[in-house]
Amino acid sequence: MSGRPIIDISGLSKLYARGLPALRELTLAVERGEFIFITGPSGAGKSTLLRLLLLQDRPSNGRIVVNGYDLSTLSKAQIQEYRRGIGFVFQDFRLIPAKTVLENVCFVAEVLGMTESQQKRRAFQVLKSVGLQHRMNAYPAELSGGEQQRVAIARALTSDPSLLLADEPTGNLDPDLALEIMNLFREINAGGTTVIVATHDRELIRLVGCRTLMLDQGTIVEVA
Amino acid sequence: MSGIRFALREGFASIWRRRTSSALAMTAIALAALVLSSLLLVTSNLERLLSGWSTAAEFSVYLVDTATSDQRGAVEAAVDGSGVAARREYVSKVDALARFKRDNAELEALAAALQSNPFPASVEVQVQSEKQGSAEVEVLVAVLAKLPGVADVRYDREWIRRVTGGLSMVRRLGLIIGLVMMAAAALTVAAVIRLAFDARREEIRLMYLVGAPYRFIRGPFIVEGLVLGGLGAGVAVLVLWLGFRAAFAWWTPTLSSLGALEVLRFLPVYTASLVVVGGAVVGAACGFAVSRRTS
Ligand SMILES: Nc1ncnc2c1ncn2[C@@H]1O[C@H](COP(=O)(O)OP(=O)(O)OP(=O)(O)O)[C@@H](O)[C@H]1O
Ligand SMILES: [Mg+2]
What we know:
The complex is a heterodimer.
Chain A: E1 7-14, E2 23-30, E3 35-39, H1 46-53, E4 61-66, E5 69-70, H2 76-83, E6 86-89, H3 101-111, H4 116-129, H5 145-157, E7 163-167, H6 175-190, E8 194-198, H7 202-208, E9 211-216, E10 219-223
Parallel strand pairs in A: 3-8, 3-9, 6-7, 7-8
Antiparallel strand pairs in A: 1-2, 1-4, 4-5, 9-10
Helix pairs in contact in A: 3-4, 3-5, 4-5, 5-6
Chain B: H1 2-17, H2 19-56, E1 58-63, H3 69-82, E2 85-91, H4 93-103, H5 108-113, E3 122-127, H6 135-146, E4 150-155, H7 158-199, H8 201-210, H9 214-250, H10 252-257, H11 269-290
Antiparallel strand pairs in B: 1-3, 1-4, 2-3
The structure holds adenosine-5'-triphosphate (ATP) and magnesium ion.
């Protein structure tokens, strides 16, 4: 698939108040439909890059264009609109403990403006796609780590994002479950969604075998 | 719109979940609104009463210095014959100077330095309460003004000025107290909404992350403030109305003897609604401010 890349980053730097730059003059293009791993040692800048992509933080320098949005020009309301096109998965799942699996997904569907029947339909659809339709009425605490992460992935898919970002999504899971989650990401990717996964699990990357960017001290040192 | 339904549902649920704190916040708003609205009620009624009196409660017929006692007699006869005066009193030039000295002790030196007495003699007339503001008084005033020996007829505003002055003091003081109470109430409402905000911190963070529109993120808190403030102010207006009815029933004879029965009125619907809307706006502003956070 050619044409305009879904992510176009140029000269991106991020300096925190103290210490070394977290990102240095990073330039990167990601094509629509790609599956990419970002790896590298702790402190290399993986999370920082994903945070900047989600506009949880602002770059010190450089330009990020995603889905045609130049991220430096967005108003607060536009930032929310932009984020609706992006799914996000964290290492610690971040489910709402007081809500059931179904409610966790429906909550997101609701605050994205779906009607009640749309919410139910969509929630069922995404939970089915992660294989959890039979656990809809369970609370997060009653689920295994792998199941919780699958709920989080289902939730991230609710808005049907064109881009899915995951920061150490398997960091809390044992290797079998980790591979299972990666296969789920592959399936999602096969459906056309661009997927970017940050992880330092080299073994996992080897098993999945995809385009991999190696970050070190804020710059790309290796592309495989 | 789905955002509005969501905000209403979540806002009311939050009020109910923390009903004790919500009741506290509402009470704070109600007390502040009660002070402000009773101030409005008292001053608007007093103003109406005064404006009735000030046109006709008392007036003075000033005589020229050369007025003869016959001319003064004619003035007094006209007053007595009109049937509107409750009382009249002749104030001679000497009396007027003495009164000035008494009322303006700080100007004693000036008074002492006067070569001659500049104060005119006058006949002070107090109008019967049921004739106040009537056309008969105006006719009398017009007749008196044309009599020989009369320099001028003036409504005596001295005591009205004093009452009005006192009233504006009361109003200023009440306004300050009311506003301070309203500020305290706003802080209470903000603190209660802050509890709701903290309790939902995770949900809010998630809403930001998934790109929920702002009406979903901030709407519930604005609704919560709006309802707390509006209900609080509504309760205040209701309590004030009940108090007004009770006072009215209790003091009917007194009020009637003051000629105040027909003049006294509760706040007009417009003003009462304004108080409620004001409370709602203060509350909503609290909700808006508390939920003001970007991430
Ligand atoms: N909020 C912050 N304030 C200051 N420095 C920060 C902040 N966040 C990250 N950093 C620094 O930026 C650098 C990159 O951090 P980042 O979290 O992106 O690394 P990472 O590659 O995700 O590491 P890990 O594999 O441990 O998650 C680190 O040196 C870190 O200390
Ligand atoms: Mg990280």
